[in-house]
Amino acid sequence: MAAFQGPVLGVILPAVDLATFDGKLLLISTQILQFLVMCIVLFLLSIFSIRLMKGFMALNLVVNAAALYYMHSYAVVLDRTMIGNILNTDQNEASQLWHPSVLIYLVPAIVAAILLLWFVPIRKPRIFARLAGFVVSLGLLLTWAFSTATTWFWYDLHGENMGSRVLPWSYIVNAARYANQQALSNREQVLLPDGEFDAPVPAGQKDVVILVIGEAARADHFAHYGYGKDTNPYTKDTDIAVLPMGESCATYTIAALACMLTHEGNAASARTVHEPIQSYLTRHGVHTEFRSNNFGEPPIKVDNYIKAYDLVADCNGADCPDPKLDESLFWKLPELIQSTEADRLFITLHQTGSHGPAYYSKYSPEFGVFQPVCDTVQIAKCSEEELHNAYDNTLVYNDYLLSELVKELADIPDTRTAMIFVGDHGQSLGENGLYLHGAPISVAPPEQRLIPFYVWMSDSFKASRGLDNDMIMRDKINPHELVFHSILGAFGLTMDAYLPERDLFNLPKDAS
């Protein structure tokens, strides 16, 4: 393990101050965790076979050496994307990466594997001793991890960068992640029944629906829902309909998106095989755009899928949006709507929103209205006021983006437009010692589940359906169950799986 610490230290040393206790703790903790994980794996393998354990060690030693050579020579990182590149490289491309200098790394590793691992005899203790070694190692890992819980937030911020450099786990774990991604992407989806539009779009008009998915948006910090600080200073003067807060169906993004984007709603699993709303509308001739500053959506088929960085890659002016911020998702949306030839257009904007722990990095400086703020990823060390201020500033920034979107949509002529904003899940900010999100749904606190839900309708959309804001209101909602069916309703598209009671734009009988 000691021979392959270079890439890991290359991440840690520039990012921490070793003169501080926290810096020393992070450096030591990283080594201890790696050691204990290796112990756990080797003890587990030894339970089945000493030969299997030795073979695993020998193979990893050689592969680690090859990996270290390419990491040093080409500055590659062994993340999921790189593993995909490796597995999909043909023989001709692979041969071009060969150079005799790789032997400087490989030969010592191969010799060590043969002499030190294969020919050195190892006594075979009883299986109970091997099992005890596994249990003790696992116990020590858990004890150390929880006793150094203050380091978790640093790992959360730097984990992806570090995880692609920890040998051998970088290529083992990311190979498994790549295989899982391929399995999910290639899963055969269950197509929904074909549907029919109630009526054609009038000549010269367009029907436009925009879904904005907010990240880690806990409703009880929204002024619209009675929060004591004005986190909604921009949308409070707009014609947005604020529906009651409701519970998300999950506390993490992948499962939450499966719920809201499929007809199943709360019954959907994270690995749903049912056709999501984007794919369904694409199949029915609606022009579909998916702009993402996040991840986790089920496999979708859209006319254009684009990440935030790519949206602004060609922008060179002084007014170019910051690709790290959600403003990039909203860039030139009116131009997109007006230039699209299709008469029906569905746009999904998947935000990075209020994802922690680096809340201070999720908004531009002018929106830091609440001070002082927590400006570190070690949020457990911040005061409650600092942490809440940083989080609340992300909501103010998003409120501004939504208000600007509404203004721009209202100014686009000849469009009947509906916009839906919904959170994917909430966020814990230290309540009962919990931070971030992802708690099991059976014990998840309300901070991680209660989410906001807004709807905005253009005047022409309201007129075409005989609606106003009061008519779409409900006393109580399950937000994720409304998304799929309300989008269908906004386009006037019905089919067998459509549930009118979950369509906000379908008037109750006593209101019709």
Question: Overview of this structure, please?
Answer:
The structure is a single chain. The protein starts with 5 loop residues before the first helix and ends in an 18-residue tail after the last strand. Strand 9 (428-429) and strand 10 (435-436) form a beta hairpin. With 512 residues, the chain is an alpha/beta fold. 42% of the residues lie in helices and 11% in strands. The longest helix has 28 residues, at 21-48. Helix 2 (21-48) packs antiparallel against helix 7. 38% of the residues are buried. The protein has 16 helices and 13 strands. The strands form 4 sheets. The protein has a 7-stranded mixed sheet, with helices on both faces. The mean pLDDT is 89.
Spell out the blueprint of helices and strands:
Elements: H1 6-15, H2 21-48, H3 50-74, H4 80-87, H5 91-95, H6 103-118, H7 127-147, H8 152-163, H9 169-185, E1 196-197, E2 206-214, E3 241-242, E4 246-247, H10 253-261, H11 277-283, E5 287-292, E6 304-307, H12 308-311, H13 333-339, E7 344-350, H14 384-410, E8 415-423, E9 428-429, E10 435-436, E11 450-451, E12 453-457, H15 459-465, H16 479-491, E13 493-494
Parallel strand pairs: 2-7, 2-8, 5-6, 5-7
Antiparallel strand pairs: 1-13, 3-12, 4-11, 8-12, 9-10
Helix pairs in contact: 1-8, 2-3, 2-7, 3-6, 4-9, 10-16
